[in-house]
Structures are given as C-alpha cells and as structure tokens.
Amino acid sequence: MTIAIGTLYSEGAIVCADTKVVASDGATTTGSKVFASLTPKGRMFRIADAAEDANAAKMLAGEISHAICDAENPYKLGAPIKAVMGPWHSSYHHVRPPNLQFVIASLVVGDEQAQVFLCEPPSTVAYGWPIAIGQGARAVDPHLSILIPLKNLNVRSALLRLAYLMYLAKKKTRVLPVVVILMLL
Amino acid sequence: MISTTGSFASIENKEMKKAEELAKEMDSVLTSAIQKVVGGPLQYPAQMVSDAFSAMAEKYGKLDFPSLRMLETVILPKSMRK
C-alpha cells in the first residue's frame, strides 16, 4: 500500500507519505518519499510520490523540482510541470510507463497561503486540497474533510489529523491472509 | 511541512508512529461510541462515552512533536525573502 497526502494548514502546507518504497522489480524497502526544494527567490516546495517504481519517481520528482524552481510564475506551475512529465511519459515508447503520482506543496515566502496540487504523467496537474494519492487514497478520500476548514487549523492539529488518515489508509488496505483448508475425506 | 514565514520541518518517523498508535485508539473509541449510541436509549451510557473521549483528548494533549520546533527557525536569509 502506498499513500501520500497533501494539505494546507493555517500557516503553510504539509505533505506526508508512507515509507514503503517499491523498486521496478517489485522488491520493497523503506525510505522517505518526500523531498524538499527551496530557491533563492524564496519559493519552497515539498514533493511526495506514490509510485510503482521508486527510481523513476525519484528521477521525475527531481526534474519536476528543477522545473518549478525555475518557473517564471510561481503561481502557474502547470505548464512547466507538463513540459517535464510529457517527454518522460513518451520516452517509454512501446512499454507502458510505471504509474506515478505526485502531490506537491508550493509557497512563496511571505504569501498568505500555500498551494497544493496533484500531478500525474503525462499531463495531469490538478490544484486543490486536501489531496490523497496512491492505493491508500481510496480508503481516506471520504475522510479528507477532517482537514477542512483551514481557519484555526494549526500545524499540530493538522499533523494529528493526518496521522489518523494514515492509520485509516493502512487499516483499510491491509491484505488479509487467505487460509485455505483442505479436507481430505 | 513548509511555512509561509520561510521555515520548514520534517517530522521523524517515530513521532508519526506514536500519533498513528493514538489514532488506532481513537478509532476504537469512535467505533465503540457509535455502537453504544445507536444501540438504543437504554444502552447509551452517556457518561462512559464522554469519559472515553475525555481520556483521548488528554492523551492527544500530551503527544509532542519535537521536530515541529524546526519551524521556529527561518531558514531563508532576509535578502531572499519576498
């Protein structure tokens, strides 16, 4: 199960993800899937992924990060992100590209509010919050409203609510072992 | 997390784990409360439900995220702020 959630709180934005890292051969390890970027112009970003190929996600997250750091307008990041995701997706030619999704939090220091958006190759960039991605998203989608409204939602309270959602995602997407009993007559 | 004042923090795994353990307890209290409330008027021990939520509120109140203190440090020099 993979999941990442992005949301705003009264003074910024939070992005969180589980720590299950899936390699292209299906092997799993644990590690962080949240990356941070900041620029000399006072722009800050957090990117988290939910992916079936961790290396591909890491590489594309790095390219997206460069693209949004260099973007002319920090409030219109759709075009620079699509310009990176499109070629990445097309590079697979006859092979199906791995499923990757990103949730990105972005802000310019001094602004009143941050932005959160979902990205999925080749060309989906959807603004809005809260956002959940990955296999665990289905389980938490009906509960995302606990992160709204934003007023008075301080960082600690937002974290506790996110912890509750992460718990729900893990609980509801747990694969139960199937026990088969053969009765020999 | 990133803050509009120009700071950011990463919460350590063990801190989130504690919060998720508490979330599991909260889920159990919620489930139990629903079962009691919809069980019928005679089965609704209001005080018991209220006590369970008070106990959870107390536990949540005590939960600390030491990593959040990183948010108090503004990492961008003044010249770089908007």
Question: Largest protein interface?
Answer: A-B, 37 and 28 residues
Rg of chain A, alpha carbons? 18 Å
Shape verdict of chain B: elongated
CATH fold annotation of chain A: Glutamine Phosphoribosylpyrophosphate, subunit 1, domain 1
- How much of the polypeptide of chain B forms β-strand, as a percent range? under 5%
The oligomeric status of these chains comes to heterodimer
Q: Provide the domain count of chain B.
A: 1
Q: What value does the average pLDDT of chain B take?
A: 87
H/I helix tally of chain A: 4
The CATH superfamily name of chain A is Aminohydrolase, N-terminal nucleophile (Ntn) domain
Describe the structure.
The complex is a heterodimer of chains A (185) and B (82). Chain A has 185 residues and is α+β, with helices and mostly antiparallel strands. Chain A has one domain (4-172): Aminohydrolase, N-terminal nucleophile (Ntn) domain (Glutamine Phosphoribosylpyrophosphate, subunit 1, domain 1, 4-Layer Sandwich), CATH 3.60.20. Chain A is 28% helix and 29% strand. Chain A has a five-stranded antiparallel β-sheet, with helices on one face. In chain A, helix 1 runs antiparallel to helix 2 (78-90). The longest helix of chain A has 18 residues, at 155-172. Chain B is built from two helices and two strands. Chain B has helices at residues 13-37, 46-62, and strands at residues 2-3, 7-8. By secondary structure, chain B is mainly alpha-helical. Chain B is 51% helix and 5% strand. Chain B is elongated, with a radius of gyration of 20 Å. Chain A binds chain B through residues 9, 11-16, 19, 34, 36, 38, 40-42, 44-46, 105, 107-114, 155-156, 159-160, 163-164, 166-168, 170-171, and chain B through 1-6, 8, 10-11, 13, 16, 19-20, 22-24, 26-27, 60, 63, 65, 68, 71, 75-76, 80-82.
